[in-house]
Amino acid sequence: MAHLNKIVIVGGGSAGWICAAMLSHYFQNGPTQVELVESEEIGTIGVGESTIPPFLQLIRTLGINEQEFIQETQAAFKLGIRFENWLEKGDVYYHPFGQIGGPLEVNEFYQCWLRAKQNGHPSKLQDFAPASVMAEAGKFMLPAAAQKTMIANANYALHVDARLVALYLRRFAEARGVKRTEGIVTEVATRPDGGVAKVVLKDGREVAGDFFIDCSGFRALLIGKTLGEPFRDWSDVLLCDRAVVAQTENVGPPHPYTLVQAQNFGWRWRIPLQHRAGNGYVFASKYLSDDEATATLMRQVQGEVVLGPNIIPFKTGVRERPWVKNVVSIGLSCGFIEPLESTALHLIYKGMDYLLRFMPDMDADPVLAAEYNRRLVADYEEIRDFIVLHYVTTRRDDTPFWRDYQQVVPPESLRERIALFKAAGVLRDGVDDMFRAPSWQSVMEGMGVRPERYQQLVDRIPLGVIMNLMDKSAPMLADFVATLPSHEEFLRTHCPAAPLRRSA
């Protein structure tokens, strides 16, 4: 087997430095060199600064101290997402991280709750989700520090500063041997078989490699412009194609959730960190101009603006094949799904995780590439379906944007998921699914999609037992959460932000 001698990453930012950090961790002291080419002249997109729990798995896998990482990136905790005005105006629901309730004998909690609801119980599903209850109360505690309590099955992620994350991971990767080269790529030279041989920089320098990772963002210099790999356009089911973003000073304590508020022609987010807040309005240019979207966002932001507003155009979809010959595309060069469920950083990590599983040698065996492409595209499709679910189940018809969504035909895979769920609350689970049962159940319930019946095995349990469980569990959870420190207190006590560094 001929090992790869050199891997070249084209592009920095979050995508490039996550790739570099992972490669440096696994290849440290090995024969494979890793070089990253980026330019300070090309800014980082940084659309989303919100993560999901697997991002913390990446941090832990790399051996990074979580507390230090939070402090260095000015991060705050995230227990889930608060959705406002999605089902209809004035409606609110949470998509929490972690479990909801606990099983009763062999029966899933959700099925027991469905039976209680059919028998008149007044509770809401999220009354039993510890992450949702903490988020609503503005409280926080590490679930691992509260074992044998009612919040032990909660989970969390982080709100991060994308620029600071890239700088942190750059320091991590460079300390483990990754070489950084400053420069703008102006030309890509190919091999006789069509693969990439080297990139040429603006000043004439050349960077050759055996394998290339395209982290060049929407420009897709290698996978798109050089190799011409087609892009699957999903704008027929995801109508938004632009975002206006701005950073503001914090006003009040940071809430431990991402705020996602539906607007007339899309949706806006608010993501509080320790030192500032990220804000954005994702919208459809068919219905709204850039100036109108900017004005709408700026009317709603809290705090003085410290950066922006800036417009970011995007196209939703994914490459037909993320891995072609000796090039793998990661991040925006591979695909993009609007940041409604904060999946951008996860897809970078997942793309690299798959690459490490199917790591090629000098031959870049097409069998490995084929399996990589199948798995990663399936992940993009799963996330696409989950995002589309939020739109196609709305009852809103108050603007042309929402009325047009009433006519959108969901992908067949989503239609099948919804039909299966409506029948008896059954979910189609895959081996590597990003979103597990509590996520689908939360969004389905939040968007008014409830099964026609519960599974009949639940009838083995006396109804009184189930009703008593519901009566007692929600108040006990709320009472316990009331004793916890506030999110702001927890940050200040355990991981206050470090002074901002001026350079890498």
TrEMBL record:
UniProt keyword terms in alphabetical order: Membrane, Oxidoreductase, Transmembrane, Transmembrane helix
A GO MF term: oxidoreductase activity
Transmembrane segments: 7-27
Pfam families xrefs: Trp_halogenase
The organism's place on the tree of life at top rank: Bacteria
EC numbers for this chain: 1.14.19.9
Gene3D superfamilies xrefs: FAD/NAD(P)-binding domain
Keyword Calcium: no
InterPro entries reported for this sequence: FAD/NAD-bd_sf, Flavin-dep_Halogenase_NPB, Flavin_halogenase, Trp_halogen
PANTHER family: FAD-BINDING PROTEIN (PTHR43747), FLAVIN-DEPENDENT TRYPTOPHAN HALOGENASE (PTHR43747:SF4)
Protein name according to UniProt: Tryptophan halogenase
